Amino acid sequence: MNSSGLHFVTAFPENIAHYHPSKAENIIEITSVEGNAKVIIQNSSGMLIKEFELKKTWKEYTIIPSQLELQRNQISNKTVRITSDKLINVRTFHRKNGSIQTSLLKASDKLGKLYKIPPMPSKIAEQSLRPSEVPEAAPFTVIVINNSAKNNVTWKGDTVVMQEVSLQPFNLAQFWMSKDVTYEVEASEPVSVLFGHPCTTVFNCTCGMLVTPLDPVSQTKLNFFIPPDFTTNGEDEASLLIADQGSPLPYDPNRPAVKSVGSVVFHRPGLLLNIIPEEDFATCFRINIYPKKPKFTNTKAVLVVHKDHKDLVYNRRVPLSGQEWNDIKTTHYVSKTVPLTEWNNVFWSPKAMMVYHIGYQGTIMFGNPAPIISKYTSLKGCVMTPEVVNMGDVAMGWRESIQYCKNLGLDLASMDGTEMRFLAPKLHAMNETLMQVWIGFRRSSLTGEWYRLNKTKIENTHWGEGEPGEPEAGQCAMMSLDPDKDFGWSDESCCTAAVPLCYKDPLVFLN
With left for phi above 0 and alpha for psi between -120 and 50, is residue 208 left, alpha or beta? Predict the structure, then answer.
């Protein structure tokens, strides 16, 4: 789903990572999607933390006051609200020297009321104690963050109600897990849910916190693919935490695809990564790196795309075609790791794919799904506002078709052949009985050369077999909507009656 939104609410779990005397830093990264976004960051009671304006594609980092970090009280008002008048993406950093966690937040309108909780990783579950005892070995925590309405939250274990709490707007509740129990959260109003641990042992007597947002329960089982790129130098330590399974599943490179109605979380030491289902793949992603705070290097993008579309993937204007991809076994998908060297990276494809942002602190991985900024498809780049397509319902001549489209504020379609061929299957799906439409190409009566109505140079055409004929065969162009004719073009008399194809270009983020 699109990561952009206008309203967000989050919290910063207790970070007791062992890096004394370093202090924990809690940071919010906000990136604008549209221009001149006015952003306000407040605490739960509305007290202002920061207010600023962001130009398009700019980003801003805000350090959250340390007193807003959660303690172990079950009910708390230590939440942070982010609002904007234009679409933004929001990411959080939880940092304490060698311990870093990053999370991509969901906007308030994309939250749910029912969440199934993944199982704890096995090694940590074996150390599980009550939260009042040794904090490094305490159980995993589930943090339920309320939005703007009063809410009733039910905490269930093995389908049995274990606890019920009432939450005021922008308050939260914390629940602690036990080994071998399957949990879920049900609320009367939408909530966001964080899943994590304050400090898990990593190596050399140090520990780092783990945290990731979870996805609400879906109506059907969704498909999740785990790219082999996640397991580099750590395949034996990797596991999958699947929301509707009672125990962790060791990562199997020969079976990297799973199904679930809830979250699937990839785990390896130092990392909890919420996997995005195939059904939520998108076409355009943005990754920012080299922020002033926190500063880290060695960050990469991991791309997942259908193997038939791997030559249609770009980073800004640079195609990734011809590069090596890894098979995700048992699926039709492939993956690739791309080192990030630019501060602003825009990965896009006219076909749906998924991108993750992965970083390294020494040998420890951290990361999050890359922010999605568009799900619309185009051969031009990242589409912010989709194209407008109108096929008239009355057949008319070519000249009359031009005026018909102008009356709608559109133009008779005159994209090049590649773009027209990309659009044609969509048109066929819209009206399977319509066989041909006028398009904005005409033959010059003076020279016999074909030209576009929009006066741009013709780069590609898509003439049908034996087309176009001699000048006397026809002066204007039609496009077939018959898949059996490969949507080819033909030249026709401009007085022939046909339905016009009216079109307006999409608003593209990346030109």
Answer: beta
